[in-house]
Known about the structure:
By secondary structure, this protein is of the alpha/beta class. The protein has helices at about 20-30, 45-55, 60-85, 95-105, 110-120, 135-145, 150-175, 185-200; strands at about 5-10, 35-40, 90, 130-135, 180. The chain is globular.
Amino acid sequence: xxxxxxxxxxxxxxxxxxxxxxxxxxxxxxxxxxxxxxxxxxxxxxxxxxxxxxxxxxxxxxxxxxxxxxxxxxxxxxxxxxxxxxxxxxxxxxxxxxxxxxxxxxxxxxxxxxxxxxxxxxxxxxxxxxxxxxxxxxxxxxxxxxxxxxxxxxxxxxxxxxxxxxxxxxxxxxxxxxxxxxxxxxxxxxxxxxxxxxxxx
Length: 201
Ligand code: TMP
């Protein structure tokens, strides 16, 4: 494979998706084909699974299995063919999100996720992962108008804290692949950090 696989990760409200157009532009300006995609989703079947995953209540392990089913389809039909062509693949989320959300926040055993990862991805890993990190309060404020948290919002705060911690732990375990971006800075500064990283690829 000759292309490069870039993934964007972070809690909901971290603002990662805002930077996709400028990343695409920067890579295209250097003459690369860019395939911009997302998970869950990225294929017609994956997008149908996304609808179920985001709206249908289900057991956390069912969620994990469906994430990897969508991922298998995504790798076979989009990611691998693009990398073989020499394209840059930019995916809004990938397997680190399963470790953060299903394992870190919802308690699915890491060993089960590792088995699925091995099955579905074999040796495929992102070349670089941009982790958009913000304090939990900031991400929650961005997601909803600021006010005294009710019971469910407090639970949500714990949930978000576990997601953030799990992402930071993934970054610590894979320092060569991860770049942590302080997404609490003004947009222009975050955009510059992102562009500086992309310029090194
Ligand atoms: P998005 O809002 O970034 O499009 O992501 C959709 C949601 O799916 C987001 O809340 C994170 C979640 N998700 C998981 O829980 N596990 C995964 O493996 C992936 C890819 C996403």
